[in-house]
Design brief:
Blueprint lengths: L27 H17 L3 E3 L9 E4 L10 E10 L3 E6 L9 E6 L1 E7 L5 E7 H14 L8
Antiparallel strand pairs: 1-2, 2-3, 3-6, 4-5, 6-7
The chain binds zinc ion.
Zinc ion (ZN) binds next to helix 2.
Length: 149
Amino acid sequence: MSILNIPLYNQNPIIRQKTKEVADVKNSEIQQLILNMKETLRAHQGLGLAAPQVSKSLRIFVINDATSAQSKTVFINPKIKRKSLGKTCEEEGCLSAPGVYKSIKRSSSVTIEAFNEKGEKFKLKAKGLLARVFQHEHDHLEGILILDR
Ligand code: ZN
């Protein structure tokens, strides 16, 4: 496992691009990328990390164990299926923009559907911080930063 470089957003040419779906979850390069992303997130003590932040234009994000629900920490080809109309505003930071904090209004709860690292599909309903992390990381897959919100 290795810790990947997280370039600053303005030094990352792909961070504002929409990412591509993962075609084969079991591909060894994808499996290695997931392990390295988890290790990188742990090293930076972040809440979440999306593949474009480590210069891979793919629809993958990982979240930390403490924030996760039902031990789900790897989200591949995720789709936000439902978003609550009720919104809350909280300050967010981003590993691609250290030192920047911005108040962002987001849905208070969301339902997400994704594949895990074994290629199994699952669905999860989240509220509070976890719902916020899902929306932040999903934004990364669409090429959107908190600076754009
Ligand atoms: Zn971020």
